[in-house]
Amino acid sequence: MALPIIGNVSYIALASGFLMTDMLSLRLALVGGYTGLVAFHMLHPRPLGIPLRWSAMFIVVNLGAACYLIADSMPGTLSEEEEELYGEHFPMLTRGQFKQILSLGTTRTDLPDGYRLTEEGVHTDNIYLMTKGHSKLYFRNTYAATIDEGGFVNDVAFQQGDGATAYGTVVTQGLTEVIVWEWKALRDLLEGQKEMDRNMRFCFTEHLVKGLLRQREVTNSNSANLNRHDTPLRSLHGVSRN
Description:
By secondary structure, this protein is an alpha+beta fold. It has helices at residues 2-17, 23-42, 49-73, 80-89, 95-104, 155-160, 183-191, 194-237; strands at residues 106-108, 116-118, 126-139, 142-147, 152-153, 169-182. A hairpin with a 2-residue loop joins strand 3 and strand 4 (142-147). Residues 229-242 have low confidence and may be disordered.
């Protein structure tokens, strides 16, 4: 009497797993379902060896995947500073992914004022994240935008691939703190983990959109200032010197 119940509950668990969108919930449901199937086969007077062995293997596979997902979402405690950095600038990454990427970076606090992080048209082996202070972006020797805290530097070239050059010159302004990643090490990490690579690209895209909006604000502000200075000049041209 118990065998049909165990069998039906196991298959219900398997079916519910395939309806879930959360990967961890799916893996746990599959572990439960295949565990029930193992019990179902073992309680038979004459167990079928092939279904029993394959169900046991599926338990191991899904349990391993579930453990990986748990470790990725709960990588251990983050410091208060890391927690703030993650929440403000890397929310699209899992905590495990953030921990791995952060471990590759080096924090620099010794950059002098006016230090060139990138130079327009020149390849740079590093990618930067501004964590304190700000830098200025120059395009064709003309000021284009300010890169504030949370802004990436050289991320566009990084996404274009090996050998790509910086699209602008970025110069530090005052006291700054940056996290520096070596280009090749970060690329090797992302290429080996497709989900992390996709999530990191989302972070880069979000930064790029914010940068474009700031650049538009700067352009509009410069235009407004120019118009304010133009008005008195035009009125002076119409005034007689007599």
